[in-house]
Design goal:
54% helix; 6 helices; two-stranded antiparallel sheet; homodimer; Arc Repressor Mutant, subunit A; 184 residues; DNA-binding
Chain lengths: 184, 184
DNA sequence: GCCGATTAGTTACAGTTGCAACCATCATAG
DNA sequence: CTATGATGGTTGCAACTGTAACTAATCGGC
């Protein structure tokens, strides 16, 4: 999995910000229209893809590292000895993704694994010296990217962003869609 | 492409919000540490995936519709007669994704296509009556989901969110990563 | 101690996605 | 008119990702 193709996001289009053309066939009294460019899930998706795509390309080119691998390394750097399951928790990845990322990191000798004595199903994962070296190289890059995106935003605005993301995630997670859908 | 598997996001883990354990082997003087749960691209990615996953599942179950298909329908509802390339622009999808979504929508008779007379490479796409019917059914659902996530947020906060998303997307797009990476 | 139920982790398979190569059509130059 | 190049759109192929099935090990009675 080492020579991973970069797969950047082409991200071809600035959303036209507004296209308030009334739909001809639907008529003026259509119940509600939805402009994609103002639809929250869409906007978040485009934003996240733009950022992740940029980062993924950079990681792949510079460090031969995929995003899942990076996530695993990031949590192991702060909490060495985690099991794969714990890593999955911490990274919001599923266990298969973690398994594959770990396999790849093992091959690259960036992570090492030892089975736990008392429970031999479980294993303890930690960065190797090489892994730490890569980590120390990636972190400044990641932080620089984040800072570049946020540069110039006043602290109060950053706080607001932080709160908003927290709040939205909490709500999105709590949401049961069961009784939405006014139609049908 | 009709019986599309829902592919919901398991989204298994609340990020532990903080895990400020100092990395034992890295020592106290490591230049910077990065906590994944506070890293903007990561948080955006998790949030967007959570929302999109929920919506994708719901669309698939209720309307037999994928997100790419929905995006195509959404822009065609507001701007009938667009070409596939224009649709790609409007939806921030690449042309292959549009091509496939359109193919699927044609099969389902939710979109129809006619070649342009003056330029027979190009085609004009528009929703059929069936397509409009589906659209009118989906829109309230989509808006209800968005509203459910935003429910209770004061208008000022919503405006702030709107501005922040706009601003972040602008910055992310403008960012050339070329001269980032302080290391290497 | 032994059998069913659980949990950790991996493997297999299928569906999805993206890039690149590809046709078809149009535009421009000679 | 033909050649060259650009553009719209589709297809082939390879990589990625998720679900489900599977193996290995532990746990919980009995």
């Amino acid at each position: 999995m080492s020579p991973r193709p970069p797969r950047p996001r082409p991200d071809p289009a600035p959303p036209p910000t507004r296209a308030p053309q009334p739909g001809p066939p639907a008529g003026p009294d259509l119940p509600q229209a939805l402009e994609l460019g103002r639809f929250l899930p869409y906007r978040l998706s485009v934003l996240a893809n733009t950022m992740s795509g940029a980062i993924a390309t950079a990681y792949a080119e510079r460090f031969d590292l995929s995003i899942p691998e990076w996530r695993v390394m990031a949590v192991l750097a702060l909490e060495p000895g985690l099991s794969a399951a714990k890593v999955a928790e911490r990274t919001a990845m599923d266990k298969v993704a973690v398994s594959r990322a770990v396999a790849s990191l093992l091959r690259a000798k960036r992570v090492e694994r030892s089975v736990e004595a008392c429970d031999r199903r479980r294993s303890q994962l930690q960065l190797t010296a090489r892994g730490h070296a890569v980590y120390r190289e990636v972190v400044p890059f990641a932080l620089a990217y984040e800072e570049a995106v946020l540069r110039g935003l006043p602290p109060r605005t950053r706080e607001k962003l932080d709160e908003l993301l927290e709040e939205l995630l909490r709500r999105a997670r709590a949401l049961r869609l069961d009784r939405l859908a006014p139609s049908r």
